[in-house]
Design goal:
The chain has 378 residues and is an alpha+beta fold. It is 53% helix and 15% strand. The structure holds flavin-adenine dinucleotide. The site of flavin-adenine dinucleotide (FAD) has 24 residues, from helix 5, strand 1, strand 3, helix 11 and helix 12. It holds the Pfam family Acyl-CoA_dh_N.
Length: 378
Amino acid sequence: MSTGGHPFAPPHHEQRWVDTATELAAEFAKTAGALDQSAELPLANLQALHGSGLDAALLPKELGGEALSYRSYGEIVRLLSAACPSTACIWVMHIGAGVGLAEISAPDAARFYADELIAGRRFANALSEPTSGNLFMMPMQHAEPVDGGFRLTGAKRFASGCEIADHFLVNALVEDKPTFFGLAADPATMRFIPIWDTMGLRASRSQLIEFTGTLLREDRRCPALRPKRPNHIGAGLAFLSLGIADAALAALVDHARRRIIPTTGEPLARMQWLRFDVADVHARLEAATMYARHMCWLADENSAEFVPATIRAKQLANGLAVDAAQLAVRVGGASAGYLRSSPIERIFRDAQAGGLMAYSLEVCKDTLGAALLDGHDG
Ligand SMILES: Cc1cc2nc3c(=O)[nH]c(=O)nc-3n(C[C@H](O)[C@H](O)[C@H](O)COP(=O)(O)OP(=O)(O)OC[C@H]3O[C@@H](n4cnc5c(N)ncnc54)[C@H](O)[C@@H]3O)c2cc1C
């Protein structure tokens, strides 16, 4: 797929990375259904992504990467998500934590995390808490000062890909202030509680982690500086939902063209109700795409407008994915939309996750609505 030409599209010189993701995604699509059923981590997919050089390419140039643009990154997340959204979800979290730690750590630690990412080590985010829920940037658990750092006893929930992670991005209250740390997996004090029997994104295995006196090392504490570049989780989440909407639209168009309605002798695709509804979903997909690409352009410009733009982009994409998947179920009917054997059934379940993931659809709307109605910037 060539996306060049438009200022919000991936830069022309990065097209080879979009092509690489297109090829990988074609392979990932073949196993997405089986991984959903078994709820196994898509380890081979994640290793293939690393093997392609994509993980390292996202690092800043001074740390051995290519500073791949957010415009290309967004397009790549979308392609992966259309093929296997569990893979895309873990990859967004892996890049968000790995590149994020390399961006926000003190220089020696930053170099260490960049080298670990380049070497193929795996990263995860342990931010959400059972108590704080959606407000994952506002931890409620305190880390207590000890020699060499701080000890954390508590729990973090829904850490995608945590069971294969070598390093975590963790936050906790230190002297009442939210503070980020890099943390190496520590089986002696960290335990995964198997809560992950879910409706959708089943292969993302986003388990609950219990911490019992885990040491958060002082030398892995991230200085409270403004990150040099925007975080890749904020930039990626809208594209997770756009990819799922792409998959829903492709599946419903394919079925509507093949399914012959006996009373008319014509394909379902000729029905006017479907033409109206598919036009509506498609127009919203185009609009949400344009806005999400604009958001990535703001990230490439390192603009302060990026943060409210992530919230708008996520809101537009999350709701659209659910509506596109719902239409696909109607088009598929019982035989092609409701049976477990149908890809549409999995797409419908996967589509629900985007709006639940932080910031949830409601938190996004509340933030933007309050900004408008209360008269301050969103
Ligand atoms: C597939 C998946 C992968 C995830 N991966 C990770 C990960 O890798 N790392 C990680 O740290 N977390 C991860 N999460 C967690 C996620 O980001 C959220 O923090 C979590 O889903 C919140 O769940 P909750 O049950 O506590 O919801 P709650 O926050 O309790 O939300 C319940 C309801 O209340 C609403 N609500 C909550 N707060 C507000 C508010 N302030 N204003 C308006 N409405 C509100 C919500 O919109 C929702 O409707 C993942 C979640 C999912 C589903």
